Amino acid sequence: MKTINLALCLLLFASPIAAASQFQSLEAIQEAVQSFVQSSLDPAGQYQISSAQIDPRLQLPACTEKLEIFPQSGNIRSGRNTIGVRCPGFNNWTIYSTVVIKSYEAILILTKQLNRNDTISLDHFSIETRDTSTLQAGYLTDPNDIINKQATRFVPVGSVLYRFHYREPTLVKRGERVNIQSGKPGLLITSAGVAMTDGIKGQQISVKNVSSQRVIQATVINSGLVSVYF
């Protein structure tokens, strides 16, 4: 009788171990997904990666082959990602999990209110590290992109700065007297003119020559200076 009871006890204790070996480790799946995601990201970046979300009730046949990991969208990006995990071979199965990636970058944050047409200086912003995974494209990371540029709109303090917040400054204004350089390198002639429209650097605008009263197309070079090269 004692022998039978001992055998039953051994069977009861052994069964969970044997059963566990028949199923795929969910922890191993999570580790495989984590490794895949990390290897897909820029090693120079700063990231926070959530653990793969997997239903703990899953009982998948143990995979005897190397797990295949793939992003459903075709690439790994900041934000929410759907990741596929496939077991090839005899016990084949495929499941999908989600991983959330936060990407941190040093970006420009407005510290002084901007009004339309203000000239932007270093005093207007600071550089702060933020999670950019929730930001729209076009946020600024380089101060040189915005210094001495002109604000396109009112922007309140604390705003993330974007490309659409600035434009090249207006160097020539409509009705303003300008110098017109014409000719070719080595033989330049300067004459007086009046700008017919506003203009930024490199833009072609209409200019009236004061002497001839002719309206010509000239390129803005600098404040009060346009050129016509032949």
UniProtKB/TrEMBL annotation:
Keyword Ion transport: no
UniProt keyword annotations, A-Z: Bacterial flagellum biogenesis, Cell projection, Cilium, Flagellum, Periplasm, Signal
Span of domain Flagella basal body P-ring formation protein FlgA SAF: 107-228
Signal sequence bounds: 1-20
InterPro entries recorded: Flagellar_FlgA, FlgA_N, SAF_FlgA
Localization in the cell: Periplasm
GO CC terms of this entry: periplasmic space
One Pfam family matching this protein: ChapFlgA
UniProt cross-references to CDD domains, sorted A to Z: SAF_CpaB_FlgA_like
GO BP: bacterial-type flagellum assembly
Boundaries of every FlgA N-terminal domain copy: 29-99
Family: Belongs to the FlgA family.
Function: Involved in the assembly process of the P-ring formation. It may associate with FlgF on the rod constituting a structure essential for the P-ring assembly or may act as a modulator protein for the P-ring assembly.
Listed NCBIfam families: flgA_cterm
Protein name: Flagella basal body P-ring formation protein FlgA
Taxonomic placement: Bacteria, Pseudomonadati, Pseudomonadota, Gammaproteobacteria, Methylococcales
